[in-house]
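Following up on my earlier thread - several people asked me to post the actual chain instead of describing it. Fair enough. Here it is, all 352 residues.
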Amino acid sequence: MKAMVLHAINDFRCEEIETPTPKGDEILVKIGACGICGSDIPRVYELGTRVYPVVTGHEFSGEVVAVGNEKDKDVIGKKVAVFPLIPCRNCDPCEIGNYCQCQNYGYLGSRNNGGFAQYCLVPSRWHLVEAQNQDINLEELCMTEPACVAQHALRRGGVNAGQTVLIFGAGPIGIMMARWAKIFGAKEVALVDIDDVKVKFAEDRGFTVINSIKEDVVARVNEMTNGRGMDVVVEGTGSSAGLNNAIQCTRIGGNLVWMGNPHTDTKIELANHSLILRKELNMLGIWNSSYSETPINEWKYTVQMISEGKLEVGDLITHKAGIEGMKKLFDQIHDHEIVICKAIYSAALDNE
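Reply from S.P.:
Thanks for posting it. Predicted structure:
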């Protein structure tokens, strides 16, 4: 099979490797599509991975084509999204279902071979989420992982019907978060970004977007809320400007979700540190998503909502490539030659 293999930092190649054969509980998935995550670019060009060589890509969907155990043969032919985390199931977080906090985990696409390939070996059926609508487009289904991150941020923020929500970052996760907020019943939703292309892209999808380069975010939010501030604010940029504005935009006693990975120079201004205390803000960290059945398996709910057409994701895919075109697509994103919302590997393009 063909796969995108990372051999070292900035040594990323499309090459022929052996198609794996499932054994024991393993499942072989024929990849339909795999999204390029924002973390994949620094992983390839700057940070590397813990193991080499490795097939990257963790946002993927596909069709089950073989199983290692006869008891799983009923899943053959099913279209599935794949939960990429491989938890140890033994540590304290795993014991209570907090798999994304596992202290000794593997991960498809960084520590184990992932989805930028024509096939992927999945550890067990437990990792598969079947689509209720088996006619679903696999390109849409590969959006499950980032859609789960978006959903998880709002659940951590405690979004309830009738509330106001502000989201810093109008990329694919930000837009999906805004869509989840509407599904959850938010009264008013707004996004913040500094990129004109992203601002227009989100506006074209019907959202209120504040360009914080051209407009005072805090003043605009005060105008929108009569000086009250937003009930729930999600900071998805990791920047000093985003975090400091987010603190000022959150109402007294409101919830501020920290989602964006911090930059090396991210700092909270002294006056805003004081605001955290004076406002008694609830500061909530987020890491990935929840795959536990209690209180809710966010992956199963996301796949259900995509399958039923209630969560729109396909219109966020702006760039695609077959497996042989993935290196060029990665380079174009890294070198800022193109502006994307979401870029994916699409197996449908492999023969073109």
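Residues 154 and 181 are 7 Å apart (CA to CA). That should answer part of your original question.
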